[in-house]
Amino acid sequence: MRTKLIMGFCLLFAIIIINACENKQAVAPLVVISGSCDTTHLTYSSGSNTMQPIINTYCAINSSCHGSGSSFGDYTTLAGMQPNINRGWVRSDLFQGTPHVMPKSPQPPLDACTLAKFGAWLNAGAPQ
After folding, report:
1. Which of 30, 89, 114, 124 has its CA 20 to 30 A from that of 100?
2. Does the residue 42 lie in any domain?
3. 109 in a domain, yes or no?
4. What whole-number distance in Å separates Cα of residue 12 and Cα of residue 118?
5. Residue 15: what pLDDT?
């Protein structure tokens, strides 16, 4: 009886641990945009609908927060940005909290279309 009780507790403990260890990174929220905001076929820098100009303006070059050699991540290239994307930091900084953590002042907050583009790009796996 005692062995069965101990085995039951071990099984319960294992189930709790397994459920606690899943990746609970949320999908970026869907932002409803009125008017024209093209969130299709977004890439970092290839094609006609790219994120690089937005990232350069709000994150990298113009803001100088995530520029070349930054200890916070170099967003001037997708390779430099990828570690923070993989950790979920880009998504959480853009979409969690009120106000959102990023971009930091003196940069203005991102408008709804820009947030929608970031969300669509991240949800697509942040393609090059």
Report:
1. 124
2. no
3. yes
4. 40
5. 57
